[in-house]
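Quick log. Single chain, no ligands specified.
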Amino acid sequence: MNVLRLTGIASGFDTEQIIQDLMRVERLKVDRFYQQRQTLEWQKEQYRELINKVRVFRDTYFDLLKPETNLTSPAALKKMSVTVSEAELVTVTASANAVLGESTFQVLQSAAAAKAVSSGITAGSEHGERLSLADTMGELAGKLAAGLTFVFDENDQFTLTINDEAIIINKSDTLQAVLTKINNSKAGVQVSYSSFSDSLTMTARQTGYGYITTDDGGHFFSALGFAVTDGRVGEAGRDAEFKINGFTGSSSANTFTVDGLTYTIRQNIAASDNAPEITVRTEIDTEAVYKTLESFVNDYNKLIEEINDKLNEEYFRDFQPLTDEQKESMSEKEIELWEEKAKSGLLRRDSALENMLRNLRSVLYDSVDGMNITQIGIQTSRDYRDRGKLVLTNGGADLKKAIAEQPDRVVELFARRSEISYSATLTAEERTQRYAQSGLAARLSDILNDNIRTTRDENGKKGILLEKAGIKGDITEFQNFYDNRINELNKQIDRLNELFAKKEEAYYRQFAAMEKALQQLYSQSNYLMSQLQNNGY
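-> predicted structure:
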């Protein structure tokens, strides 16, 4: 609330300025709190930037939803390349457990779905009028060939069963509505009408041997020109039949997996004794696996470099955050340069970040069942200035050789899995056992999860870094070490501002009292002077 104050009337003093100068000294105390708060805000901001980078790295290389780069899965480390001599007939892909080498494949016949096609629905009808999808079942009955009609019950409906799925058809249903009912049911068929051929086609949704079965309720199929025999409609579907290395097999679908190889028959092939012999060659895709591990090494190096830069950044003690008053006397460029130094070194020697890097390095030094990364051409840089970065020996040639000649060894080193899943509530004994049973990927992932997980442990704590700075989208965004400290400072700032307001008001009262006393003194002096003059002195 603004208060109009008339000061300095009697004394002639600029009491407003005097009080502001007095309060400026007092406000130096609260300015220090403002500076501390700004420093904490900057620290939290820098911390969250690092947390986001850690999260991106974790989600890229240790996330089940990213199989191409997920190093905890053999699929990312044992990628296969497959060449097929007749690629227009069949495509083949390989999983990590596929058998390497050359094999033969023959398509004896492709899989097909059961199918039924009606004859011309209105052919031979006395009206010769083609139907419309907008016709109701009652209207359609009048357009059918002579002697063919639907049979409705007393409720003007009938129940049609297709593949043991009951569907109620009403006399008032349009043909479009009936087709929709069938297609949306659990009968497992797709039916459509062609106005060109004036016929209905019904096809099973899945391939494989078997018929479309029906009770022909309401004479639905018979009236529409389908051939119904012994509760079956149309032709049976068929299984795919094939030979692999001379051994015969079958599948209800045209895509199937045998010994880690997934085959997809691309053409409709009827039974034949002259099936061509297709050559399938399966090899390790050395280049693809190499690129995955090379990207991992590069991204790991980039991550630890960014963290190390913050941990070793120079701290300028004399460059504290600027107050609003200080900014008023500086140019924008001067402010920018000042704050650049003020933000420097705020995470220097941070213990949580140092511990995380130390643990990551320790994992990479440890062996997995007697193996370590040096045996596949990856080692820690010998230059101390690199602070634990990884390098590919012999320009990456050693890693490529290991991938090509010992693929299973590479998979075991990184993707070995423990019978114990990661959890924030694992006991120390379970953690030790999981570590011993896991490959490098799971061990690295566990360390990152310990620092940035959003789940709580038995003590109610989330990831170490989240507890310190939090992250957007999680409760730690507002409940973390830095925000708690900032809230405490805000309370202290509010208390000091309240005290300063009272002190400022006290100064004004004191100066007002002084003005009043001076006014009274001036009045008395004037009175005495006037009395002396009146008495002739």
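The mean pLDDT is 89.
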